[in-house]
Amino acid sequence: MSLQKGDQAPAFEAVDQSGNLIRLSDFAGKKVVLYFYPKDDTPGCTAQACNLRDNYEALLSSGFVVLGVSVDDEKSHQKFARKYELPFPLLADTDHKIVEAYGVWVEKNMYGRQYMGTARTTFVIDESGIITEVIQKVDTKEHTSQILK
Predict the structure, then answer these.
(1) Which H or E run contains 22?
(2) Cα–Cα distance between 122 and 138 in angstroms, integer?
(3) CB atoms within 10 A of CB 149
(4) For residue range 119-139, what is the model confidence (pLDDT) as tens digits?
(5) Phi, psi (degrees; rounded to nearest 5) at 142
(6) C-beta neighbour count of 125 within 10 angstroms
(7) pTM reported for the whole predicted model
(8) What domains can you pick out in the chain, each with its CATH number?
(9) Counting Cβ atoms within 10 Å, is residue 50 exposed (0-12), middle (13-18) or buried (19+)?
(10) Residues contacting 122, CB < 8 A, separation 6+
(11) Which residues are catalytic?
(12) Which of 26, 60, 57 is nearest to 129 (CA)?
């Protein structure tokens, strides 16, 4: 079941790279960019995170909160965030609850090998928790412009 524009965003809670418990409900009344990415410190994920970092002020001034989610653990997120000076929380979804709730834990195929992984997808959620945009074809180097368009 994949979520679409107009759907209520599933509630979640997870720990970020600093050990803070983050809940979607913490951001009621704010617009949220919830971006799912496959793996810390890989080329595409780094390009995407750095694009969001470099345009973070523009996102903030447009009223957005940015949350990254992957199935990597807190320690991995900590290293990734420190290495690239990422100013936003990266949620550790090690039990796959969030990726499954958002329908982005999918079967992937690389070099003929099938495995489960996170589909790079961004959900834009409005102030009342409704999904206003689902970006599935993420341009990792120009992601902010996809969000602010």
Answers:
(1) strand 21-23
(2) 8
(3) 7
(4) 999 999 999 999 999 999 999
(5) -130, 35
(6) 23
(7) 0.96
(8) 31-148 (3.40.30.10)
(9) middle
(10) 33, 34, 35, 36, 133, 134, 135, 138, 143, 146, 147
(11) 45
(12) 26
